Amino acid sequence: MTKVRKPLISGNWKMHHNHFEALQLVQKLSYLITPDDFAAVDVSIHPPFTDLRTVQTYLISEKEPIPIALGAQHCHYDDTGAFTGEVSPAFLAKLEVAYVIAGHSERREVFGETDEQVNAKVHAILRHGMTPILCCGETLEEREASHTEAKVTGQVEAGLAGLTADQVAGLVLAYEPIWAIGTGRTASSEDAQGVCGLVRTVVEGRFGAEAAAGVRIQYGGSVKPTNAAELMAQPDIDGALVGGASLDADDFARIVGYRS
């Protein structure tokens, strides 16, 4: 199908940068990313929770708001309750958070999040008018055992359970092979396209052609300025979920401006 979706480049800062460092980084990005870049791609940054208010204030404090969308890395699926250390999606919405990552492999692998919990978070994010970035991906062992298709298909189907076709068309999916996250290893553009194409096929089979044509699918896993253009040229890759390279303003700006 024809690629008409506007790419989304997202920077996941993970547990890096205090609020002073976050402010310095977003200030630099606001100068490095050009109006032409913003016209061609959407951009979101996902700081730690302690940085969100600082970054949000800066993005809206200029004479003209800076068109970088504020994102969060995670949220709980309930609005309130006795969940020490968790963050409510309602609170994020009040800070004008636009995108929330759900089901990142580190949340699944390190903190034991289940497909059912991830699905509940996707529903909560949508309930508060924000857009989920739903992650999926396989381990090296699963890949070598030829289980990639089953693992990714299962995560996508479980994560989207109970949604409408219109909801699915408006959200973001992110394929992030676990073996390529923070390792310096990157799936080849052909491999990344193969799995992103599979994800779109799964969406089409469950929600129809319009939902499949509308949903944006990012690739995440050691995305760098040197490989961004090749990855983004693939027909089913509509952006990037960037980890380490998003911590450096120059590198992230170069990824955003991959067309030049």
Report on this model:
β2, α3 (52-61) and β3 (69-72) form a beta-alpha-beta unit. The longest helix is centred in the C-terminal third of the chain and has 19 residues, at 189-207. Helices cover 45% and strands 14% of the residues. α1 (19-32) runs parallel beside α3 (52-61) and α1 (19-32) crosses α13. The chain contains 13 helices and eight strands. The chain is globular. The protein has helices spanning 19-32, 35-40, 52-61, 89-94, 105-111, 115-127, 140-144, 148-159, 165-170, 189-207, 209-214, 228-232, 249-256, and strands spanning 8-12, 42-46, 69-72, 99-102, 131-136, 172-175, 216-219, 239-242. An eight-stranded parallel β-sheet has the order 7-6-5-4-3-2-1-8. The protein has one domain: Aldolase class I (TIM Barrel). It has 260 residues and is an alpha/beta fold.
Number of helices: 13
Mean pLDDT: 95
Spans of at least 5 consecutive residues with low confidence: none
Rg (CA only): 17 Å
Question: How would you write the strand order of the largest sheet?
Answer: 7-6-5-4-3-2-1-8
- Describe the main β-sheet briefly: 8 strands, parallel
